[in-house]
Amino acid sequence: MIIKTISTILSNEPVGENIYRIELLSPEISTASKPGQFINIKVSENLDPLLRRPFSVYNVIDDRIQIIFNVVGKATKILSSKKVGEKIDIIGPLGNGFNLNDDFDTALIVAGGLGIAPFPFLTKILKEKNKNIISLVGARTKSQLVLDGFVNVNTATDDGSYGHKGTVVELFKLKVMNNDIVKTPSAFKVFACGPIPMLKAIIELCDKLNLNCEVSVEAPMACGTGLCQGCAVKTRDGKYKLACKDGPIFNSKDILL
Ligand SMILES: Cc1cc2nc3c(=O)[nH]c(=O)nc-3n(C[C@H](O)[C@H](O)[C@H](O)COP(=O)(O)OP(=O)(O)OC[C@H]3O[C@@H](n4cnc5c(N)ncnc54)[C@H](O)[C@@H]3O)c2cc1C
């Protein structure tokens, strides 16, 4: 069920360079949310900006929902200035969420930049299911690495300021291809989120290694509910799916980025 509600902001704080985390009181949406889903936020009461903005559910703690965001434009700038106690109009949970019914015992989480967003919630649920978890987290630089909510973390930064010097894709190659962490490929599942070039590279590697992989495709979207058809993602059979409704989570074998 999709819920539209006016939620109270419980906290809004910087957690990295240009990165904020907001906690919202929403008993209905927090109960209904699954990892990988997102909420659509109307950041202003007037018509500017007109469109809602989508943000992954970063975590759910009791009756509270958290999101994390990078300030990149008008809506995220407004969001970063919101004060505790202010009300905000949200719709959710939207999208499909990760499929956790596959028969895997080890999850490899791969996050690039703000691609960290869906994973603290996923990690929490995977821990409840007693799965083994390995996390690879990459960012441009140390001040943009937000590691709260991750477990068993290996890091990469483009400038080498923390962890492996290079991209999270290189870290994936080091850990997965040059290492023996994949003991039984069929019991292993990759969950990835980040910029499209990173997802493309991870999908190629998973194809090569025949690994089960799901990716969160955060394609820019307008309505968030399938009406505007603005967030089409090409599938391997030449058709299109909508990131907002059929996704944002896709099995890597289904899509062509
Ligand atoms: C399903 C989904 C989940 C998302 N989850 C998160 C999240 O958890 N945290 C977060 O920080 N962001 C997330 N995003 C992206 C977020 O919605 C945008 O950053 C936000 O809408 C920007 O609004 P703005 O008005 O501040 O910037 P705008 O003025 O709309 O855009 C500023 C710049 O960012 C680019 N941009 C906008 N949206 C995207 C996008 N989806 N992908 C790549 N570039 C984009 C624009 O092209 C432009 O260059 C998600 C997007 C989707 C579709």
Explain the overall architecture.
The protein has 257 residues and is of the alpha/beta class. The chain has five helices and 16 strands. It has helices at residues 27-32, 74-80, 119-128, 168-177, 196-209, and strands at 3-16, 19-25, 38-42, 53-56, 59-61, 64-70, 87-94, 106-112, 132-139, 153-157, 164-165, 188-193, 212-216, 232-234, 240-242, 249-251. Helix 4 (168-177) runs parallel beside helix 5. Residues 38, 49, 53-56, 67-70, 72-76, 114, 117, 218-221, 248 line the site of flavin-adenine dinucleotide (FAD).
Give a concise summary.
The chain has two domains: 3-94, Translation factors (Elongation Factor Tu (Ef-tu), domain 3, Beta Barrel); 106-216, Nucleotide-binding domain of ferredoxin-NADP reductase (FNR) module (Rossmann fold). It contains five helices and 16 strands.
The percent of residues in helical segments reads: 10-25%
Total number of β-strand segments?
16
In what range is the share of β-strand residues?
A: 35-45%
Q: So what's the CATH class of the largest domain?
A: Alpha Beta
Strand arrangement, major sheet: 4-3-7-1-2-6-5
Q: Using the 3D structure, state the CATH architecture of the largest domain.
A: 3-Layer(aba) Sandwich
Tell me the series of helices and strands, N- to C-terminal.
EEHEEEEHEEHEEEHEHEEEE
**How many domains, as an integer?**
2
Question: What is CATH's topology name of the largest domain?
Answer: Rossmann fold
The hetero molecules present are: flavin-adenine dinucleotide
As a whole number of angstroms, the C-alpha radius of gyration is 18 Å
Residue ranges: pLDDT <50 for 5 or more in a row? none
How many H/I helical runs?
5
* Overall pLDDT confidence: 95
CATH superfamily of the largest domain: Nucleotide-binding domain of ferredoxin-NADP reductase (FNR) module
Overall geometry comes to globular
Q: Terminal Cα separation, in Å?
A: 29 Å
Structural class estimated from helices and strands = alpha/beta
**Major beta sheet summary:** 7 strands, antiparallel
